[in-house]
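Attaching the record inline, Q. Sequence:
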Amino acid sequence: MTLTIGPLSAEPGRKTRGTLPVDLGPKTVDIPLILVNGSRPGPRVVLTGGVHGGEFVGTDAAARLGGLLEPEDVTGQVVICPVANPPAVYDGRLGTSPLDGININRVFPGDKDGGPTERLAAWLFENVISGADAYADLHSGGIDETLLDFIGYRLTSDDELNAKTRAMAHAVGYERVLFGRNAQGGNSHAAAARQGIPAILIETGQLGDRNPDQTRTLLDGLYRLLHHLGVIDAPQHVAPVTVQPREWVWTGSVVSPVTGLWYPDAATGDEVTEGQSVGRVIDPADGGEHKVTATATGQILYGMNGLTVAPGAELAAIAVPHD
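Structure, as predicted:
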């Protein structure tokens, strides 16, 4: 079958690259797409990067993969969107869009009659994500965020879907696999799960870095995922997996109570106990100190590295192994 998204199309055995304009109301943005239509029929796999600005590893790996995949090596179809949210990626370089201050990964599946970010989410969901047989959204720790690499997925009421999604998450080859107990919320992979699509989140890298080793780590994981899905043969150039994937669950999130300057006492990777001090927020005007404590026991998987924080800013996320 011909692979078609808007005016872009790729016949079987062909690869097409281009951009599609999306009207967001106050601005029209160009969404880059790479369509790889394999020489043999098979599943459709969708990969998105650049949902958030300042998370460069996912965008880099997606763009590189789009250049490396050739139709004669592919069974099925691969749709790659390296920059899913151009306003945040190019103009804001942060998790929220400069057009309306909204985090797109909180509003999927979007609203075609809503504001700019809701319109973009609706276009991506309708035109890129829907109809996929498998979906992976590529993220990393942003410019002010430390992070341990992990895979995320959501449980649904469909046991067969859960098994497929869990197998995808484990196939990437990362040590930590975080599952959410339901598919509620506006994350793209949660919205996809609610539509019956096996969907995972892949977090690789931190601090907005564009370290080539991190990109290589993610590329290796994507090749393993595509092989698991039957899209490509076992790649010979991928590093062997040296860790056993382990299921984790989130236990708590620590947010800033006030505006001020953040001075952490605990770092990403540290084990903390509920009630333990994890840092202080200092008022730059009067020097007042607000003690911040862990809301749960476990390991900090990602945390705030930036100095300045506002009320509600996430300072740390805590998880524990499920077993």
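The chain is about 20% helix and 35% strand. Residues 212-228 form the longest helix (17 residues).

More tomorrow.
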